[in-house]
């Protein structure tokens, strides 16, 4: 008999081992091709998925009626049709909280790299191009006093805001609803258009949903002040073609992107921009955080196999 749990990707060391004989693990850093995924999920009670695994009606049909939980190894859930899962009584869980600090750290790493032109500098040295220190050489943007805008003040946005105090930056944010003052981390709520117009540096941390897809289109990117820096930590919210165009025409000083809408594809127009710092989806990529994400996904599966609710359910 096949094990009741499918794990669709290699997990951090020791994590999948907690499931022992209960699990079949696709022990690879590459996603399962769709046809293999649909075959592998058949008859399972639980599946640990990543953002690359689309969980839709086809997936749920392929799994069959035994499926009780889809435990996403991510805080994001745009790969999952939650309504289709609910209609079949399948629990959905994600991994909130445990990746907040690592992702906020990466937002700051990218922000600093973009504002201070680290990617360009590194490429210049490695290319062997002659260079010399000069008063006007490779000048970046100063952070102190620059208004920092945060689009999406969830856990990660709030952690980005907390880190701003050390850089002496005034912080504003936009969420659909204003947070209670005790959760604002000293930041000021602004309507979206005002936030855009006032942010010298904007960090995007809101979730990718049908409502936020391409929220930052060409028109909204153009509302940022000329010379602004845009940092995107969520795939799909920033229109990548529009971002490349805003770098190309000089409206933006620089940009940094950690997640892409059609990973692993990166828009060639963006790849062509010297002032774009591009990271291969590294937000939560630390040893400790990936261990914690894996453990939480396993905890969710074990809870449901034990007849309980998931520890971190969605919806
Ligand atoms: C998430 O958890 O949604 C991240 O994108 C994975 O790093």
Automatic annotation (TrEMBL):
One cellular component (GO) term of this entry: cytosol
Keywords assigned: NAD, Oxidoreductase
Top-level division of the source organism's lineage: Bacteria
Domain named D-isomer specific 2-hydroxyacid dehydrogenase catalytic: residues: 5-311
UniProt cross-references to Gene3D superfamilies, sorted A to Z: NAD(P)-binding Rossmann-like Domain
Record InterPro entries: D-isomer_2-hydroxyacid_DH, D-isomer_2_OHA_DH_cat_dom, D-isomer_DH_CS1, D-isomer_DH_NAD-bd, NAD(P)-bd_dom_sf
One Pfam family here: 2-Hacid_dh_C
EC number per UniProt: 1.1.1.-
GO MF term set: glyoxylate reductase (NADPH) activity; hydroxypyruvate reductase [NAD(P)H] activity; NAD binding
PANTHER family per record: 2-HYDROXYACID DEHYDROGENASE YGL185C-RELATED, 2-HYDROXYACID DEHYDROGENASE-RELATED
EC class: oxidoreductase
Name of the protein this chain belongs to: D-glycerate dehydrogenase
Keyword Flavoprotein: no
Occurrences of domain D-isomer specific 2-hydroxyacid dehydrogenase NAD-binding (ranges): 109-283
UniProt record similarity statement: Belongs to the D-isomer specific 2-hydroxyacid dehydrogenase family.
Keyword check for Oxidoreductase: yes
